[in-house]
Write a structure and sequence with these properties.
This protein is mostly beta strands and 121 residues long. The chain has one helix and nine strands, in the order H-E-E-E-E-E-E-E-E-E. The chain has a nine-stranded antiparallel beta sheet with strand order 4-3-2-1-9-8-7-6-5, with no helix packed on it.
């Protein structure tokens, strides 16, 4: 029985040890965001103005099966992500694993990660 618990603990540690980056793209405005699970940062990039803004201490919270929220340190929900393989950048026919709504800017888009890639059409 101890071996079962030890094996489960090792598998859990291996799964939680990997870092993930979630990249989202939006059209109108032409923005992108990058969330780093290791740095707990959400970086906004405005491609028209060529500017960036980094928000620190952002947590990724699991709200349900395939439902995630990026939340600031003061509890504000910045983005809601839905893992439904129906995300869109608004310009191409590419299909993103995540559909995203950025609440701080009221825009929608699509996201991918280093483990869940864009289906390029």
């Amino acid at each position: 029985m101890k071996k079962v618990f030890l094996s489960a603990g090792i598998l859990f540690a291996m799964n939680t040890a990997h870092a993930d980056i979630i990249k989202c793209v939006f059209t109108e405005p032409f923005w992108s965001t990058t969330y780093s699970t290791t740095q707990s940062t959400l970086t906004y990039t405005d491609h028209m103005e060529n500017t960036t803004q980094v928000i620190r201490n952002v947590s990724l919270q699991i709200k349900g099966a395939g439902i995630f929220e990026l939340v600031s340190k003061d509890g504000q929900v910045l983005q809601k992500l839905n893992l439904n393989n129906n995300g869109s950048d608004g310009m191409s026919d590419n299909v993103y694993p995540y559909e995203v709504r950025d609440l701080s800017h009221n825009i929608v888009g699509g996201c991918s990660s280093n483990h869940l890639k864009v289906d390029i059409k």
